[in-house]
């Protein structure tokens, strides 16, 4: 019995010696070449990642819990014409007031996602769509789902001049 205990103790001590001697710790003195310096440079004219941009706006604006009236939305940005086309589709039976509030939230979300990718754009606020819309005209169309699917008329359509905030008065 004593022989097994001594043998186990010797094996354990040997393992400890081997493990301690064969490793290099980077915890106390990390390799200086592996550490990157933070980039404090200011960059202008950042190109937005449009796939991520659309995904993030859709994730926010099509959330069933926050926007139960939402069905779908799409937007295109034509930088050459300084134009944003926004198409919002709400569920059938959505009130004009709810559609108007949702359109306001969508435009502000588009701006705020642009501001996440390029901090040069000011965030939206109570009376502003935000800095992304400062130099861009916006064409907004709001459809009920059945009208959109049948290529019908939008329940509301407007052009918003650049750097303009407006509310939407949508009649039921």
From TrEMBL:
Name of the protein in question: Lipoprotein
């Amino acid at each position: 019995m004593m022989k097994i205990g001594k043998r186990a103790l010797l094996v354990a001590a040997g393992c400890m010696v081997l493990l301690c001697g064969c490793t290099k710790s980077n915890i106390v003195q990390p390799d200086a070449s592996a550490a990157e310096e933070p980039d404090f440079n200011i960059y202008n004219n950042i190109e937005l990642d449009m796939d991520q941009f659309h995904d993030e706006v859709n994730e926010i604006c099509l959330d069933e819990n926050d926007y139960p009236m939402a069905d779908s939305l799409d937007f295109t940005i034509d930088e050459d014409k300084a134009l944003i086309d926004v198409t919002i589709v709400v569920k059938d039976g959505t009130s004009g007031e709810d559609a108007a509030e949702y359109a306001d939230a969508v435009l502000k979300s588009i701006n705020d996602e642009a501001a996440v990718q390029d901090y040069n754009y000011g965030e939206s606020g109570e009376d502003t769509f935000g800095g992304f819309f400062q130099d861009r005209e916006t064409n907004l169309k709001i459809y009920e789902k059945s009208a959109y699917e049948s290529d019908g008329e939008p329940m509301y359509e407007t052009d918003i001049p650049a750097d303009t905030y407006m509310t939407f008065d949508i009649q039921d």
